[in-house]
Amino acid sequence: MKIALLGYGKMGKVIERIALERGHEIVLKKDQNNTFEGLLNADVAIDFSVPDSAIENISECLNNGIPVISGTTGWVADYPKMVSLCEAKNGSFIYASNFSLGVNVFFELNEYLAKMMANLKQYNVSMEEIHHTQKLDAPSGTAITLAEGVIKHTDYSNWTLETPISNEIRIEAKRIENVPGTHSIFYDSEVDQIEIKHTAHSREGFALGAVVAAEWLVGKKGVFTMKDVLGLNSK
Ligand SMILES: NC(=O)C1=CN([C@@H]2O[C@H](COP(=O)(O)OP(=O)(O)OC[C@H]3O[C@@H](n4cnc5c(N)ncnc54)[C@H](OP(=O)(O)O)[C@@H]3O)[C@@H](O)[C@H]2O)C=CC1
Ligand SMILES: O=C(O)C1=N[C@H](C(=O)O)C[C@H](O)C1
């Protein structure tokens, strides 16, 4: 498979290594300093760039009939626009706030726990995410997906980085040197605490998941999620 990398930073470089190990070829490594030249030779594009460039990168792919995977976070308010563009162009698109298998299992666990806790009003939900100090967005895209998973099954209706008012889930975003990504969800009552936690030990899991998603997407039309890629939709 010929892959265009849109974003060639920390993630782009790990994705390149894993893609080459799996027998793929890299036909474009786009950063701030070059153009999309080479994109049209790609079977699929993988965007791990910056919040301000994700929409341009994804649009360029969809407008040119190139299937695109995006892992860039911090632009999700505009996700519906990219879904509409993909549908209008009969294209192929996957966005995931987190491509790792472990986190996608954790997303399911989070929703399962939220369903069980929904009627136990004595418990207060909060979250913590910890990432490296270069991260541009807060809270992390993964924390937002986790909060949405709780909101879907409980009376919570929003998340906040500030002091929460009723029905808001407080997310604390910590930035510590070299942390690849740690997410915790807490259910606190006066008498106890339930905590679930996912800790990424490196960026390998995110990158492998993105390459697997790219391999899966080629030849399909539509807007998909990691649930489709991992066959979790029917569960
Ligand atoms: N969904 C997931 O599983 C994961 C998502 N992420 C997300 O992926 C994104 C990238 O993370 P990371 O690799 O750590 O970040 P880095 O800052 O290391 O890399 C970002 C890259 O994007 C490039 N870039 C900047 N502007 C553009 C542009 N206009 N077009 C293309 N590339 C551009 C930068 O280029 P230059 O060097 O020239 O500035 C750099 O190469 C973040 O949003 C992060 O949150 C990260 C890990 C997992
Ligand atoms: O910026 C990162 O590094 C990461 N970003 C993603 C996010 O915002 O959730 C995924 C992962 O936690 C690493």
Automatic annotation (TrEMBL):
InterPro entries: DapB_C (IPR022663), DapB_N (IPR000846), DHDPR_bac (IPR023940), NAD(P)-bd_dom_sf (IPR036291)
Active site: H131 (proton donor/acceptor), K135 (proton donor)
Residues covered by the Dihydrodipicolinate reductase C-terminal domain: 102-230
Ligand binding (NAD(+)): G71, T72, T73, A96, S97, N98, F99
EC number: 1.17.1.8
Record's subcellular location: Cytoplasm
KW Cytoplasm (keyword) present: yes
Residues that bind (S)-2,3,4,5-tetrahydrodipicolinate: H132, G141, T142
Catalytic function, reaction form: (S)-2,3,4,5-tetrahydrodipicolinate + NADP(+) + H2O = (2S,4S)-4-hydroxy-2,3,4,5-tetrahydrodipicolinate + NADPH + H(+); (S)-2,3,4,5-tetrahydrodipicolinate + NAD(+) + H2O = (2S,4S)-4-hydroxy-2,3,4,5-tetrahydrodipicolinate + NADH + H(+)
Chain ranges of the Dihydrodipicolinate reductase N-terminal domain: 1-99
Its biological purpose: Catalyzes the conversion of 4-hydroxy-tetrahydrodipicolinate (HTPA) to tetrahydrodipicolinate.
Subunit details: Homotetramer.
Protein name (database record): 4-hydroxy-tetrahydrodipicolinate reductase
